[in-house]
Amino acid sequence: MERVNVLGVGISPINMPAVLSAIENWIATGEQHYVCVSGVHGVIESQRDEQLRRIHNASGLTTPDGMPLVWLGRLTGHNSMERVYGPDLMLAMSELSARKGYRNYYYGGAEGVPEQLAHNLQNRFPGLQVAGTFSPPFRPLTADEDTQVVEMINKSQADIVWIGLSTPKQERWAAAHVGRLDGSALIGVGAAFDFHSGRVKQAPRWIQRSGFEWFYRMLQDPKRLTKRYLINNPLFLGLILAQLLGIKKFTINS
After folding, report:
1. What is the Cα–Cα distance from 217 to 201, expressed in whole angstroms?
2. Is there a single domain that holds both residue 164 and residue 239?
3. pLDDT band, residue 151 (cuts 50/70/90)
4. Which three-class secondary structure state does DSSP give residue 72?
5. Residues 34, 248: Cα–Cα separation, whole Å
């Protein structure tokens, strides 16, 4: 699939139905891919980390999680491109999974979060099959621990593995485990774990559509997010302007 070049990160010009169709096809054919759900934060982190940029560009899909990426896609002629927001993708895929019998594994979040997340989703989507849950420690796993995690997830026979480690940890984890895990789709959705477990309140839908969800989230968690947004957002705007004017060139070769 052609990608939209956003500062050297290839964003898939896609919408929710197309993402669901792609994942459904992977499961049917036994293909194995990972999905990056990326916004401004992921794009800017990829400017600082070449490996992360390559991970985004080697994904099965890198969906536009933020409205600025959608606007840039439409500016380049991809009029059907829509925001594929991580929490919305989790809900849409859960509904499809309940109908199709797909098995879902939830990896990430603080202690108790993936269990509450799975419980809430099963209540919302009767018939949803939860293959398992695991909250990893807030440190790198040893090689032996990682092998045990792979064996545990594979034993669960999960079709889809949801990853809630935040960017860029979840993208690196997905890229390192695709092919080692038997599931067809590894999907990093970060804050969706906290939102759908009820731990953190989501922004109202009108704020999400406005492109100012970042401001709402910053007010909720200023200590962690203020520096990120006040540095990344102006930097993104400046680099995008340079790209659009041809002052600076970016390539999306993975």
Report:
1. 9
2. no
3. very high
4. helix
5. 29
Phi, psi for residue 4 in degrees, rounded to 5: -90, 125
Identify the residue whose tokens are 């040893």.
Answer: 142
- DSSP 3-state assignment of 108? strand
If asked whether residues 67 and 172 sit together in one domain, one would say yes
Cis peptide before 168, with omega less than 30 degrees from 0? Answer: yes
pLDDT tens per residue, range 41-73: 999 999 999 999 999 999 999 999 988 999 999
What is the number of domains present in the chain? 2
CA gyration radius, the chain: 18
Inter-residue contact 32 to 179 (CB < 8 Å) = yes
What is the separation of C-alpha 169 from the centre of its chain, rounded to a whole number of angstroms?
11
On whether residue 102 sits in a domain, the answer given is yes
- 187 inside domain: yes
Provide the CATH number for the domain around residue 173.
Answer: 3.40.50
Q: How far apart are the first and last CA of the chain?
A: 14
Asked if the model's pLDDT at residue 254 lies above 70, the reply is no
Q: Which domain holds residue 17?
A: 4-136+150-193
